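job 3f2a | input accepted
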Amino acid sequence: MRKGTVRGIIVKNNKLAVIKRIKEEKGKIRIYYVLPGGGVEEGETLEQAMYREAKEELGVKIDIKGILYKFVNMGDINHFMLCEITDGEFGTGTGPEFTSKEYSNRGQYIPMLISRDDMLDIDLVPNTIRDKILHDTINNNILKELSEVIKVIEEES
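job 3f2a | predicted structure (157 res):
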């Protein structure tokens, strides 16, 4: 039984890590973006899952600052965690998305770093979370401003 999913709001040099997805759906090419992450495996904590996903998908180690948002999607709770890259070479992930035949028909997975302004022009799924990030970061200092949002959430809890 899955505990839900984790997604990283992973910031490096004031840019947001995303996975550009290109795949064919119903005979048409669809391009969209997702935040790195995935399902929490049996026996994992949310944090362990986020560390694993960051390594698999991006090739990096991260420091988790806290959970920013929770979003229910098709019965799963998605936990969106603010993270900062601490080590590794971005874009060197070797997870199943890049190496498994099982994923070969799921299209391309391309790790990228984008600015806050770039978020306005892409289909970052889910759009609800994209809009929250945009709302919560007005001065374009993503890590600092979202860290302040975490402090407010913790004080209210």
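job 3f2a | The beta strands are 5-12, 15-25, 28-34, 37-39, 60-73, 76-88, 108-114, 124-125.
job 3f2a | closed
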